[in-house]
Amino acid sequence: MRAAYVLNGPNLGRLGRRQPEVYGHTTHADLAAHLVEYGRGVGLEVEVRQTDYEGRYIEWLHEAADAGVSCVLNAGAWTHYSYAVADAAALVTYVEVHISNVHAREDFRHHSVLSAKAAGIIVGCGLRGYDLALTHLAAGVDSGA
Predict the structure, then answer these.
(1) Residue 115 annotated as binding?
(2) For the site Transition state stabilizer, which positions are given (predicted)?
(3) Which of 46, 95, 102, 123 could form a Cys-Cys staple with 133, CB 3.0–4.6 A?
(4) 87 annotated as ligand-binding
(5) Can 83 be counted among the known catalytic residues?
């Protein structure tokens, strides 16, 4: 079974408690358990990680690159400004995920520094967006980057 990482960035550890009207009531732990099980169903061994520390996120991307592991990335706020995360992400095949429709929110959320190298972008599908991203990775997509 191929490995895949789901890497969640800042504040996503607060799922279920942070703005439930936007992000829902499912906790990060519940999401992680679901994604591991869902991944098995599509032929992926999924590891879910979350951090509020940008350097750790970049180290995980380097680890994925060295191991040839594809990723689902929800980089949170780093999506909109972190060229360091974008440079590290460019080393792997990844699908960018946003739980909410970022284009219907504040202006600063309308631009992603990650999108140009993504194998796919899923926006506004709620937590189901992660399932869609894993299905896309399981199909053997390549970003062409």
Answers:
(1) no
(2) 18
(3) 95
(4) yes
(5) no
Structure tokens at 31: 């999401």
pLDDT band at 104 (very low <50, low <70, confident <90, very high): low
CB 117 within 8 A of CB 85: no
Task: Tell me whether residue 23 is one of the annotated catalytic residues.
Answer: yes
Residue 28 is labelled as binding a ligand:
no
How far, rounded to the nearest angstrom, does the alpha carbon of residue 145 sit from its chain's CA centroid?
18
Please tell me the predicted confidence (pLDDT) of residue 123.
93
What token pair was written down for 45? 């061994």
Average pLDDT, whole number, for the chain? 91
Of the residues 5, 57, 94, 98, only one is catalytic, namely 98
Place of tokens 């960018």: 96
Q: One of 5, 23, 57, 94 is an active-site residue; which one? A: 23
Q: At 91, which amino acid appears?
A: L
